[in-house]
Amino acid sequence: MNPPEKTSLPFLVKFQVVLAVLALLVTIALASYIPTLVKKKSDLDSELAQLNAQKSQLQNQIADLEKQKADAEKLGSAVASAFYAANPKQAQKTLEDSLNSSPDGGIRPRIFIHIRSASQRAAAKPVADTFRQNGYVVPGIQILVADGPDETQVRYFHAPDEAEAQKILDQLTAAGVKKVAAKPNLISGHEDIRKRQYEIWFAPNAF
User: Fold this and answer.
1) What distances in angstroms separate CA 177 from CA 114, 153, 173, one per listed residue?
2) Gap between the Cα atoms of 5 and 202, Å rounded
3) Exposed e or buried b for every residue in 114-128, given b needs 16+ CB within 10 A?
4) Which end of the chain is less packed: N or C, by CB atoms within 10 Å?
5) Residues 202, 152: contact at Cβ < 8 Å?
6) Mean pLDDT score, 154-172
7) Would you state the pLDDT for residue 200?
8) pLDDT of residue 102
9) How far is CA 139 from CA 29, 66, 77, 151, in A?
10) DSSP character for 151?
11) Strand, helix or coil at 84?
12) Could you tell me which residues come within 8 angstroms of residue 205 by beta carbon, excluding any fewer than 6 positions away?
C-alpha cells in the first residue's frame, strides 16, 4: 500500500498568507504608535493656542500704542495751532531756531503746511512726505487755520524764489490736490523771513 502523497499549497495562497501576516504586523505597529501621534497633536494644539493668545495680546498692545500716538499727535497739533494763532511771531521764531540748528538749515528749501480742518491732516501727510523725499524741510506739525483761500495756494516771500514756488505748485497738481492756483502768491514786506521759505495753504476741498 503506497503512502499518501503530500499536497502543497498553491503559490498564490502562500503569497496571500504572507500579505495577511505583513498587514497584521503593520496594523499592530500603527496601533502602538497612534497614542504617540495623538499626544504630539495635543501638544501642538496647546502650543498653537498659546501662540494665538500671545499674538492677540501683542495686537492689543500695538493698537493701544497706536491710539496713544494718535492722541499725542492730536494734542500736540492742537497745542501748536493754538500757540501759532495766539502768537504767530513767537511760533515762527521757535520753528526758525529749531530748523536752523542743523548745518544745512539755512540752505534747504522749507515748506510750512496750513490745513483748514483736522480732517485734512491725514491727506496732507503723504504730500508732506513726498516733499521731504525731494529734499524739502517740512515741519511735522501742519498748522490748523480757521480762515484761508478758496483755492490751494503756494506762498513765497522773496521775488527770486518764484520759480521754485511754481515748481512746488506744479508738484501739488501732480499729487492730485484739487483746486490748485495757477500761479504762486508773492507775499511781500516780510524781509525777516529767510529766502527759500514757502507756505502751502490748502483749500477746504483740496482733497
Assistant:
1) 14, 11, 5
2) 112
3) bbbeeebbeebeebb
4) N
5) yes
6) 94
7) 93
8) 45
9) 72, 21, 12, 22
10) S
11) helix
12) 178, 179
